[in-house]
Amino acid sequence: MRRRALVAGLLAAPAIARADAAFPDRPIRLVIPWPPGGTNDIVGRLVTEGMAARLGQPVVIENRGGAGGMLGADVVAKAPPDGYTLVLGGSGSLTITSLVQARVPYDVATAFAPIGLIGLGPNVITVHPAVPARTLAELQAVARAASPPLVYASPGVGSTGHAAGAMIAQALDVPMEHIPYRGTGPALNDLLAGRVQVFTNALAPMLPAIQSGALRAIAIAGRVRSAAMPGLPTTGEQGFPQIEAATWFGLLATGGTPPGRVLRLHAALGDTLAEPEVRRRLLEGGLEVEPSASPEEFARYFAEDRARWAPVVRHAGMRVD
User: Fold this and answer.
1) pTM: predicted TM-score of the whole model, two decimal places
2) 48 CB neighbour count, 10 Å cutoff
């Protein structure tokens, strides 16, 4: 029996190799688990054009927001493991959501096949101009005197913005109310309208509003300043090094996707990120490009990111039953 199975496997190997060599032979779907207009949407649309040219097939974007990115991720987790359905993953949609939500319809450790890391970007802490604060110390004083408490927005329950907001309230030792939205775009709109006062998010979608004065940037929530805003101090420089929240972005396929197809997608992604114009646009948006991360390196980073955020979520009491 074992010999027959071995022979069958050897006979099937050339057919599998031929199938992977022909991959892809039809359009690929990229699920962005957030509505249009946010950082995920910006990053996804930047990389898909270059990948499509290298793969010889269109990469069709499908925005599927909701539940902190979990609804879109679930589509990919349950898709056939053939490399034709991908997800633009991030620290919020795949890492923090899986820690916050008590009922996740997939095992985040096995449901996805990491393809490659796109880049990392520290979050920027912003306030509506009506909030009389230009530093974290001033925000702390305003929040302590506020009645009712200041309200901070997030792109959804379990998003990086949710965890970062809880981290800020904890570090400043102030009460703040959380209002989740269905993505960065809706949250940003309400911040611009003054319906919420504080929003922490990746820099790319916030930059135009900051530059125009419609929003005020308080700090970069990371260890180093952003090349896109070199004059904005970090949280550590302002005396709050415990506030550190970076957002990562990467591509993943359905778990069990053949390794040859994963490598084909990884090569297309890496070549796209090596394009000077793509790198320039990502860097201008506050994203530090990481085109060299292999699928294995990305998988390790993915696991380490979950371990990094777990104590923050637990301490802040963010678990949702």
Assistant:
1) 0.76
2) 23
